Amino acid sequence: MVADALIYHPTVAHYLKFVATTVGRDKVLRTLQYFSRFLAWYLYRTNHPQSSISPFETTKKQFGLTRKLMRVGKFVEHFKAAAVASDAKSVDPVLRFTAIGRQLGYAGYMVFDNATVLDATSIRKFPSSQRLLREGYRAWFTGLSFSILSSLYSLYILRERSQRASRISEKDGEGVVEKKKIAKEANAVKVQLVSDLCDITIPASALKWVDLDDGFVGLAGTVSSLLGVWSQWKKTA
User: Fold this and answer.
1) Any transmembrane segments, and where (predicted)?
2) How many whole angstroms separate alpha carbon 225 and alpha carbon 237?
3) Per-residue pLDDT tens for 134-149?
4) Contact 60, 36 (CB under 8 A)
5) What range defines the domain where residue 124 resides?
6) Nearest 5 degrees, angle CA 196-CA 199-CA 202?
7) What is the pTM of this model?
């Protein structure tokens, strides 16, 4: 009876939906990858032996490689999203422009990332792989920058809507409904903004544009990954 209760529990069904998605699995692996990066840095800084650090360095490397393989071909999705955004003439011009920039940036990152798969897996090493990786990080940084601009602009628009909603009579409940809708949208935008701000430290650090240690980048990546897990968990509810 206990086994049946566990097997047929709604949470188990939700979990199966979550892990059935590529995004769900990727976010979990990403969380472990960046948390391992932080732990490896922390153990090194606190003078732990290499035998204690190696498992986390290996986890970071292997999970990173696994995620790289899972991303093969994903650039098509972002090119399509950019085309869809370009065709959405009714959307606010600023949001439309930033959506196109974001998706093209992500698509560029995926193209360069996919181009280094053979080198990363040691199937075929080639000297230009590091240059391709740098170009990929530049494209990722560009995509994240557009996403941050989009979030900031969205928050500005939502604030304007909130001010207008405050002037609506709440006797018929219209103002209350509008305020709740705005609050929900603003919360989603804020979560995305925090995630992007955490993520942008990764390419910025890899390109040496900012001086951040592995501990900071690892924690930032862990936070953005957990936010991604949470968002995907809600989507599969």
Assistant:
1) 137-158
2) 18
3) 999 999 999 999 999 9
4) yes
5) 72-143
6) 150
7) 0.92
